[in-house]
Write the structure tokens for this entry.
Amino acid sequence: MKKHIPILTILLICCLFSSTLIAEKQENEYDDVSTQIDDAEWNYNFTTNGWSINFPANITNYSISWDTQIRNRPLAQVMFTHQYDFQYLESFDYEANGYLEIKQKDHDNWITLKKYSGSSKGIINEKIYVTDWDGQKVTLRFRVEGKGNSVFSEHVGSWDFWDFKFVGIGDWTPPENYLTVSGSMYDSRGGWRNTADHFKFEGKDDFSGIMEFIMVNNNSISGTEVTVTNKPMYFPLKKNGYNNFSFYLVDLCGNICGPLNLTWKVDFQNFPKVEILAPKPGLYLLDKRILPLDKVFIIGDFTVRIKAYDNVSGVWGVRFNLWDVTGITDTEEPYDIKINCTHFGKTKLEIIVEDVAQNIFWERFDVYYYNAGG
């Protein structure tokens, strides 16, 4: 018949007294607490000022406790140094695990802060945040739970810890943020971009550490969107138009950096829309179309006229080129030019429309142009 192993509970009743923290120096304040030994099975180590116990397979209950009071602090931590050996003996169907647990005083619900299994394989310095219990009286305990057969009483495991203390860290300094963007931008044209840029939002906090990266997109397709992560953000920006963002950083003490407000203007693969009004295929005489044809024939001077618009960044300018003859740029509506130059024979008329973000519409077609009086 199997025997159930009793539970070794090392009980620490812990609360943190207030202390003065110096913001400029970011100093730590440690609590001095009195100890009370509840069972002689715990051995006090005068070298480390810590406690240790070796437990057999037939575990019995031993406890050790501290009485103090936790009060509000910017950041509360439990710190201690320890080493452990929780064995699993498969042949005897026996295992042991360690638990660091916390609960509000006078409550029954224990919350596991950390579980320990196997061997630490050396000394470990622990730092565990208990910020959620600031301002409360709590009980903190180390507990060893054994399960399986109790067939012998020899030593099968141990847990040693020392330098146990509560720490409140004063951090009143906001974190720092960093925003980098890949892609091309044209500052001379109001900061418009014509590439699918990537943003990288990073930050650092040299004291308590960063808890949250927050991005608010104020003009997303579905309305305002809020993104919260615990790591730097890296994402592509593909939406054309004005993209309004607000960035925040929050450290573990609640200090906020932000908002960092940015407006990014993107016109990506959105080309100007163009309608060629003149000349159209036909015969022109002194700038008047007198006969429709399948090609453009012009006698005398003529006008090139287009209608152009861009619904994102806007039209920057229109370039009219008559090959081997002339080239003129127009930057204001109506977009047209008068051409009157000496020429006999076939040439090409080229129309180039560029928007503010340097997306380009381009068209070229043959013109048979005859003019002796240019």
About this structure: DSSP finds no helices and 32 strands in the chain. The domain at 273-371 is CATH 2.60.40.10 (Immunoglobulin-like). The mean pLDDT is 77.
